[in-house]
From TrEMBL:
Keyword check for Membrane: yes
Transmembrane segments: 12-33, 39-58, 70-88, 170-188, 216-236, 248-266, 278-299, 305-330, 373-390
UniProt keywords, alphabetically: Membrane, Transmembrane, Transmembrane helix
MF (Gene Ontology): transmembrane transporter activity
Protein name: MFS transporter
PANTHER family per the UniProt record, alphabetical: MAJOR FACILITATOR SUPERFAMILY DOMAIN, GENERAL SUBSTRATE TRANSPORTER, MAJOR FACILITATOR SUPERFAMILY MFS_1
């Protein structure tokens, strides 16, 4: 294992993740305070998610031709530009212009996120030798620590909005991430991910059976999370429970941090189980958990206690599901095609986030948090069914 390169890639991903989580909370809370409806808030993130779809597909192809260092640096640079661009928004602009401007800046951020994620996840396959489950361990650590820091980013977003205001918070994050970019440019020396042969564009869609099924399952798995997490939950906490910005940010942060720690420890949960079977089993548990939470909220059964405990259990089970998926995609691909296959897989992830983000605003408007949770449960059932055909032996 190349420890130095792994540490630099991970640190770069961590720096990006802090700004990504904080930016999500900043935009959500700031524009909710300005009076934007749940559907309008969802639209602010649509281009962010849609650009993620295109970026994962084309980014994998680009990474295979130019190497993963280039795509990693490009992702960090675009995020700095997106933060600076958003800070220049004028509150006096008309609503339509403001929404279009924010959507454009979020589009840049979406491209940045998926370039950085694809580069970092692909690099793990190339930097870690898969001996005695090492690949499962290190990809879980990378993914889990990233999500824990995203939770810290949620908290940071609420705190910075309170302390520095919208524009000041954006400038502070842009400056911090620029330093991370500079450090990675100086210290990351190893070339990674460039294919030996030029990849044709039509090869982007030529995937193995396992990768196709897993990518489809990933789509519905992440749609099931974002359909209540992106818009519905924070708006519910603010409007129905009367929580402050800091309380909402702190709760979201605690949930994602806990989720990240569980994800990092996921190999311990499935140590004696074939990961293919684990993907089916844990997805089934997640479907039952989500449906039970929806019933509790629908029947108004101690709603606050049910919501908080139910979301904690959802986070634990979802984290294990996500970690198993993240390992399987690396196990199903070879070193020479890792950027292409990981990019294709995370394109499914991005489609799921896009679908979940849109439905989060729509379903909350139609039927509140209960409708979002029932939609989530249905999507988890689909994700479970799509993991059943996985047959390749992938025991770590």
């Amino acid at each position: 294992m190349n420890t130095k390169s792994y540490a630099i890639v991970t640190a770069s991903y961590w720096g990006f993740t802090l700004t990504d989580g904080a930016l999500r909370m900043l935009v959500l809370l700031h524009f909710h305070a300005l009076g934007y409806s749940p559907v309008s808030l969802a639209f602010l993130f649509l281009l962010y998610e849609f650009c993620g779809v295109l970026t994962n597909l084309l980014g994998g192809w680009l990474g295979s031709r130019t190497g993963l260092k280039f795509t990693l640096y490009a992702g960090l640079t675009l995020q700095v530009l997106a933060l600076v661009m958003l800070s220049l928004m004028n509150p006096a602009w008309a609503t339509a212009l403001s929404v279009s401007y924010v959507m454009t800046s979020q589009a840049l951020s979406g491209i940045a996120k998926d370039l950085t994620k694809m580069s970092s996840k692909s690099a793990v396959k190339l930097l870690v030798a898969d001996q005695s489950g090492a690949l499962f361990k290190w990809v879980s650590i990378l993914t889990g620590s990233k999500n824990a820091l995203k939770g810290v980013g949620f908290l940071l977003g609420g705190v910075l909005l309170t302390w520095l205001g919208f524009q000041g918070a954006l400038w502070a994050m842009a400056g911090g991430l620029a330093l991370v970019l500079l450090a990675s440019l100086i210290y990351l020396k190893q070339d990674m991910g460039k294919t030996k042969q030029k990849v044709k564009f039509n090869q982007l869609f030529s995937k193995s059976r396992e990768i196709n099924w897993l990518s489809a399952a990933r789509l519905f798995l992440f749609a099931s999370r974002d359909v209540w997490f992106v818009v519905a939950l924070p708006v519910f906490l603010k409007e129905s429970l009367g929580w402050s910005f800091n309380q909402v940010g702190s709760f979201m942060a605690a949930w994602v941090i806990g989720y990240g720690f569980v994800q990092a420890a996921a190999p311990k949960f499935v140590r004696k189980t074939d990961p293919n079977q684990a993907a089916v089993t844990w997805a089934g548990i997640l479907a039952i958990t989500t449906a039970a939470l929806a019933v509790a909220i629908m029947l108004d059964f101690h709603p606050v206690a049910s919501l908080l405990s139910g979301l904690a259990l959802f986070g634990i089970v979802f984290a294990v599901n996500s970690a198993v998926h993240s390992y399987l995609i690396l196990n199903f691909t070879n070193d020479d095609e890792v950027a292409l296959n990981v990019g294709f897989y995370y394109m499914g992830n991005a489609w799921g986030r896009l679908l979940g983000t849109l439905l989060s605003g729509v379903m909350f408007l139609v039927g509140g948090l209960t409708a979002c949770l029932w939609t989530s449960a249905a999507m988890v059932v689909l994700a479970t069914l799509l993991t059943v055909p996985l047959r390749k032996d992938s025991t770590p």
